[in-house]
Amino acid sequence: MKYYDLIVIGAGPSGIFCSINTAYSNKKVLLVEKNNKIGKKLLIAGHGKCNLTNIGDIKSFLTKYGTANKFIKTSLNSFKPKDMIDWFEKHNLPLTLIEETGKYFPHTMKSLDVVNLLEKELKESGVEILLNSFISNISIDKNNNYLIEIENEIFNTKSLVISTGGASFPATGTTGDGYKYARQLDHTVIHPKPALAPIYVDNYNFTELSGISFKKVTIKLFRNNSLIAENIGDILFTHHNLSGPGIIDFSRYVLKGDILKINLIHVSREVFENNFLKEINLNGKKTIKNFLLSFTIPERFIKRFLELNSIIENKKISEISKLERTIICTLSQYEFKVTRVGDFSIAMATAGGVNLDEINSKTMESKLHKNLYFVGEVLNIDGDTGGYNVQAAFSTGYLAFKNIVK
Ligand SMILES: Cc1cc2nc3c(=O)[nH]c(=O)nc-3n(C[C@H](O)[C@H](O)[C@H](O)COP(=O)(O)OP(=O)(O)OC[C@H]3O[C@@H](n4cnc5c(N)ncnc54)[C@H](O)[C@@H]3O)c2cc1C
Questions:
Q1: Where are the beta strands (DSSP E) in 43-188?
Q2: How far is ligand 1, taken at its centre, from the CA of residue 45, in Å?
Q3: Residue-wise burial string across 278-309, b where 16 or more C-beta atoms lie within 10 A, e elsewhere
Q4: Does the global pTM surpass 0.85?
Q5: Whose CA is nearest to atom 9 of ligand 1?
Q6: Second label for 211, Cα 20 to 30 Å away, from 90, 116, 349, 370?
Q7: Which atom belonging to ligand 1 lies closest to the Cα atom of 40?
Q8: What are the φ/ψ torsions at residue 22 (nearest 5 degrees)?
Q9: Over residues 83-110, mean pLDDT
Q10: Which atom, in ligand 1's list, is nearest to the CA of 134?
Q11: Which atom of ligand 1 lies at the shortest distance from residue 38's CA?
Q12: pLDDT tens per residue, range 304-359
């Protein structure tokens, strides 16, 4: 039997960062990964550029994690977004801020450089890494140490960190194993479902508009006629569904049958209708297409929208009937009925996971078993797009380390 101070299961950012910091504190650490390399999901993060964190203070970060915002506060304070920026700077991979979105990327814009740096740090800190390794059993011995069984070999550890990620993009290794381990260790798991995913809607008539986006539109989510959530963000029309940050950040809340109402014209219906009537008086010869273009709506969308409603694009606005005007005014709250959220194969995160009520948010330690920790996306934490998930992984991994070496 081999003995360790800490065994970490899962080499994503949370597990890696926890391992590195613990090993630098003179602890014997083993990191177990079932893939043939570490950080496979991190490699594809941010389209291969790796969006590591975002601009803003902790208060603004706390609005990005849905119902987990209170839970994650201590983690974020223990390793702040600024600490992330400093850590990479100190390790000769400074981050670059993209002003428009507030996102931070490595200045090389390569996820591979992030993973290579973490790999180098794992080596230098002395973490032992076991790749291609699958755990067949986890148990607790009479001394309250954890026994990890891998291919008939038993590894004994005082502390155990489960950092196996969620269930999205299973090809990267995240097939929900952590939920199984959590249940074996008496924890409950909030039903995992796809988050940060595109949304499919009924009668999607915009396939040929694929690639068209609207900037900073207001999106409202209604269920049984009640407003459930509201968001301002960019949306993207794709071949088969609605996507873009404004939509995918919303996906954690969405259920089949919900109604999305999107304001595509950036002004209220009243303002729009008043403008419409004013313009009819002042510029009645203007075409409806040109009138709509003044609301920064992409031309291809206008053409498709008018076509769908059998309105001729070159019709003079003075000739638009009352019924047609009512139809055009729906652009201020354009309705889509949700059929489903994109599945785990395309979702960038998992909503649901290990029940936060059973984890001490000040330490990341299980409330049910001493020296057992859960960090990163295996927990019921999912952030918005923009670097919030990688930041959560680093911060929760760091907080666990601080308690492990206490
Ligand atoms: C396409 C895509 C793009 C993304 N882009 C961004 C981005 O730019 N910015 C951002 O903030 N977030 C992004 N995310 C989300 C972010 O990558 C994750 O939230 C983050 O990687 C989670 O980190 P983690 O440490 O919890 O686990 P993960 O990174 O999910 O890693 C978990 C590891 O555990 C291993 N594992 C699982 N089960 C076992 C087992 N039984 N035994 C051993 N090992 C196991 C897995 O193989 C995996 O390597 C993206 C996600 C996707 C899918």
A1: 53-54, 95-98, 103-106, 128-130, 135-140, 146-150, 153-162
A2: 9
A3: ebbeeeeebbbbbbbeeeebbeebbebbbeee
A4: yes
A5: 387
A6: 349
A7: 49
A8: -70, -40
A9: 97
A10: 42
A11: 49
A12: 999 999 999 999 999 999 999 999 999 999 999 999 999 999 999 999 999 999 99
CB within 8 A of 206, min separation 6: which ones? 212, 237, 301, 304
Give 154-211 pLDDT, tens digit per residue. Answer: 999 999 999 999 999 999 999 999 999 999 999 999 999 999 999 999 999 999 999 9
Residue type, 129: I
Residue 12 sits at φ, ψ, to 5 deg, of -95, -175
Distances, alpha carbon 324 to alpha carbons 262, 290, 298, 331, 370, in Å: 19, 16, 20, 12, 67
Structural domains in the chain?
A: 2-194+350-404 (3.50.50.60), 198-342 (2.40.30.10)
Name the residue at shortest CA distance from atom 6 of ligand 1.
45
The pick from 390, 391, 399, 401 for probing ligand 1's pocket by mutation, whose C-beta has the most ligand atoms within 8 angstroms, reads 390
Nearest to 189 by CA among 203, 205, 202, 176: 176
